[in-house]
Give the backbone structure.
Amino acid sequence: MIRLLYVALALTLSACVGTQRDRAPDPQDTITVTSSNFSDERPVAWPDRSPDRYPVHGIDISRYQTSIDWPTARANGVNFAFIKATEGGDMLDPMFHAHWQGAGAAGVKRGAYHFFYHCRPAEEQARWFIRHVPRTPGALPPVLDMEWTPFSPTCTIRRDGATIREEARIFLDLVERHYGQRPLIYTTVDFFNDSQLWRMEGEEFWLRSVADHPHGVYDGRAWRFWQYTSTGVVPGIAGQVDINVFGGTKQAWADWLRARRL
């Protein structure tokens, strides 16, 4: 009987040790936030709720940022980067793969975005994005960039809000099924209002507002990321760049990233 008790105790201790080992912290779970050391070519006297109150800053980039020293940018506050991948159904940003690899190597959280082209079916555009953007564990969610294109040489149509919202859902659903993450929606104030994107309940938004806090500009709409300037200056990046903040604390950032992990 005593021997059986010893065996049972040994098995229990072994199970506990195994459980503790299984729950050992993953080194990738350590999320370091670096403080921003940015400036702006066109600084704004923010009337309320300055972006400086948010601790997690990052950038969005495309072919126009041709020279990035990623380790320097990371050390100076680039905690995340949204990188343009595709546009419409036949355009791949020529800098996408270089930016994707550089950001990843420097430990910058990265996500890819697609610029929506209103003259092509949403399904075709989703397939084009999927064709070119790798399914990378730990990546930020994909982004659907929707805005008007009045200066496009080939497509300036303005479809009604119901059609736009349905096309957005088609894209979001297809991309979510492939990557296992619901994409974010990036948009501007005029497009948000004209297309009534506020009707798309349950979606996460990345909102542009370069003169005031999104809370006032978007009538209190919840947001996950805020693009607050297009004339930012970041050490390690040649020329001006878009700068964004995550809408929460450092802990909220860590929690959101873990919840989004593939």
